[in-house]
């Protein structure tokens, strides 16, 4: 069995690509670290490094171990965090997977209030596409996630957060289309589009909105919307994205929603038949209560409006 200490040593070497720098970061001697890595390779029976004169790179086996080591150490950290305090079970670090969504504004307030009540709680947010986050949920590294669900999986529990993200185009303010209040779906076919790499390709597809991806002229894909603004300003194309993710004030850019409305509901996702930590359970229940209260308030306001 590989010791966690060896995994930490290995990840340091993989990160720095240099035994001397890795040893300095670990506060151990270069000779000790070199021997530990040689012993690790002998234990696994596979070469993990390609040793150059100045740089060390990973073999395919080394890359595989790096990915697994990160998952193993993250899982151990989250497990230890769940048992970190006998006096207050609502303490420690909670890892939350998130998609890029303006719905985080609603969730942020809930989590902030929860943290004020339980000051020993810390959060770690992991932003990635749905497939990557669900993989981390399956491994137990992430206990809960905020995702836009399209294809429901029977292995997960979904709590509808009663919030939807609306899609549209980011464009230059002097663009002719900026004079319109909305952009018709059919107009997309004639535009150079910059689309989210994973939100619409693969797990969540444009077909969800009745669009044939093959008929669109996609000139680029992205995973970080902030970088896309520079492409739009340069005239590469129109960025398909969620409303409110970019502050277009005094930016030379503007957002126009798409009609018919393109939107996806937001869900709190956890794994079925998986024992959540006391901290994760408490946070999930707090979110569930707040969502229920929010819905009741909206329904009450609708009744008042209709009675007038």
Structural notes for this entry:
The chain has 308 residues and is α/β, with parallel strands linked by helices. Helix content is 40%, strand content 25%. Strands 3, 4, 5, 6, 7, 8, 9, 10, 11 and 12 form a ten-stranded mixed beta sheet that branches. The longest helix is centred in the last third of the chain and has 30 residues, at 278-307. 26% of the residues are buried. Mean pLDDT is 83; it is low at 200-205.
Radius of gyration: 24 Å
Which CATH class of the largest domain?
Alpha Beta
Count of DSSP helices? 8
Give the % helix.
Answer: 25-40%
For the record, the count of structural domains works out to 3
CATH architecture of the largest domain: 3-Layer(aba) Sandwich
CATH superfamily of the largest domain: Periplasmic binding protein-like II
* Strand portion: 15-25%
Sequence stretches where pLDDT stays below 50 over 5 or more residues: 200-205
Using the alpha-carbon principal axes, give the shape. Answer: globular
Number of E strands: 12
Major sheet size, sense and barrel closure: 10 strands, mixed
Average of pLDDT: 83
Question: What is the distance, rounded to the nearest whole angstrom, between the alpha carbons of the first and last residues?
Answer: 71 Å
Return the structural class. alpha/beta
Task: Determine the CATH topology of the largest domain.
Answer: D-Maltodextrin-Binding Protein, domain 2
């Amino acid at each position: 069995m590989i010791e966690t200490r060896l995994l930490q040593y290995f990840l340091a070497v993989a990160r720095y690509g240099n035994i001397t720098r890795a040893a300095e970061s670990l506060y151990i001697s270069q000779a000790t670290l070199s021997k530990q890595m040689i012993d690790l390779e002998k234990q696994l029976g596979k070469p993990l490094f390609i040793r150059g004169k100045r740089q060390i790179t990973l073999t395919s086996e080394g890359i595989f171990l790096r990915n697994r080591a990160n998952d193993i150490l993250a899982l151990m950290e989250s497990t230890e965090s769940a048992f970190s305090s006998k006096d207050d079970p609502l303490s420690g670090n909670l890892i939350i997977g998130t998609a890029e969504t303006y719905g985080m504004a609603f969730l942020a307030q809930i989590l902030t209030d929860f943290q004020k009540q339980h000051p020993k709680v810390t959060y770690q947010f992991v932003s990635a596409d749905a497939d990557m986050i669900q993989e981390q949920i399956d491994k137990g590294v992430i206990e809960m996630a905020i995702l836009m669900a399209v294809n429901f999986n029977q292995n997960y529990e979904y709590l509808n957060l009663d919030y939807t993200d609306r899609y549209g185009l980011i464009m230059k303010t002097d663009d002719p289309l900026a004079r319109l209040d909305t952009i018709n779906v059919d107009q997309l076919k004639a535009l150079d589009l910059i689309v989210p790499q994973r939100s619409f390709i693969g797990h969540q597809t444009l077909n969800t909105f009745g669009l044939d991806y093959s008929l669109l002229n996609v000139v680029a894909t992205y995973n970080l919307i902030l970088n896309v603004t520079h492409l739009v300003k340069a005239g590469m194309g129109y960025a398909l994205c969620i409303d409110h993710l970019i502050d277009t004030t005094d930016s030379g850019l503007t957002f126009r929603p798409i009609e018919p409305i393109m939107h996806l509901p937001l869900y709190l996702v956890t794994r079925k038949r998986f024992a959540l930590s006391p901290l994760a359970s408490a946070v999930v229940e707090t979110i569930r209560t707040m969502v229920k209260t929010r819905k009741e308030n909206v329904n009450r306001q609708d009744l008042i409006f209709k009675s007038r």
